[in-house]
Design goal:
Elongation Factor Tu (Ef-tu), domain 3; single chain; elongated; 7-stranded antiparallel sheet; about 200 residues
Amino acid sequence: MSEPVILPPTCTIHCIDGNEAGVACDTAQMWEALTEEFTMPASGASTSIPVCDSSQYATGGYVWIEGIGYLEVTGKPNSLYITVRKNDETGNADAAETAAVGDIMIHCPPPEKSRWLEGSATWDPGSIADGDEEAQEVTVTGAALGDFALASFSLDVADLVLDAQVTAADTVTCVLANNTGGAVDLAEGTVRVRVFPM
């Protein structure tokens, strides 16, 4: 008597718009149903989730699980599992809460905001004489020497040059330089900084 043939469970990846697309689905716009109950781990902890095809998931991206929240995709141990970590995302369920078999899991691309760090400060540069400059430090948590930095000011800088550099850990120094030929007096505004980690 021959051995029984064991067939793998049927699973399907869908595009966000609901059109079935199989494993060719765009990895930034796809969903599938959970095939096992999922239990939310503690903050900072990781767990595995069975999926149709782990190659469709981007490490560094996120999954959103119905009724549970967002988890970061941190690894793909094999073709049928992804490893996810619970970060401190607003609105996530508490540890030990569960999602049922059949609940929807949506794959989200790496969030744009995760590609940079941000900070801001109130700044009143006052009157800057021609040939002079005024500096303002802005705290940007996670900034490190060598990172790229950009700055903007909430008011017209009146032809002054605004520059930003990471000058110490978690610190960006913004400089307004005056080469206009006369003094420029700016009112108080907000300087915003964006840092791109290397």
